[in-house]
Backbone:
């Protein structure tokens, strides 16, 4: 006998948007401009968190553009070889969207607007950005 167990459980409390968990990613850049001491370009590996491929690509693309680095590869850390998985790499630094400064975002300052993804190095830059981009009227 088949009992009807496929009732929707907790369907009322289900949020509209599906929450995608952040995955840990690894990215490898080639730095062609840091090779004065050596004939070979320097390879940099950074780790970061992103919700899926497109967010990951967005983050590393803007990083690579700002620092004129070449993206070698990037993938979810759990899909990398054991050699990489067991290692901890430096975090991918953030770039302040207002002043273009690179900062290590242990304590990043996100924009106050819910739908804005930008991060800032200081509250000064955040204020300037809000005035510039969101035209807050009080
Ligand atoms: Zn800044
Ligand atoms: Zn903003």
Residues:
């Amino acid at each position: 006998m088949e009992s009807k167990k496929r009732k929707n459980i907790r369907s009322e409390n289900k949020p509209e948007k599906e929450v995608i968990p952040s995955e840990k990613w690894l990215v490898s850049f080639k730095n062609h401009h840091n090779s004065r001491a050596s004939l070979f370009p320097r390879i940099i590996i950074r780790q970061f968190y992103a919700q899926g491929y497109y967010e990951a690509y967005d983050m590393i693309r803007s990083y690579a553009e700002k620092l004129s680095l070449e993206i070698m590869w990037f993938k979810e850390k759990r899909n990398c070889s054991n050699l990489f998985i067991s290692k901890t790499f430096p975090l991918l630094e953030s770039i302040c969207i207002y002043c273009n400064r690179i900062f290590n975002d242990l304590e990043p300052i996100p924009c106050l607007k819910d739908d804005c993804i930008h991060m800032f190095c200081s509250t000064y830059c955040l204020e300037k950005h809000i005035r510039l981009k969101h035209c807050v009227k009080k």
Q: What stands out?
A: The chain has two domains: 21-92, 94-138.
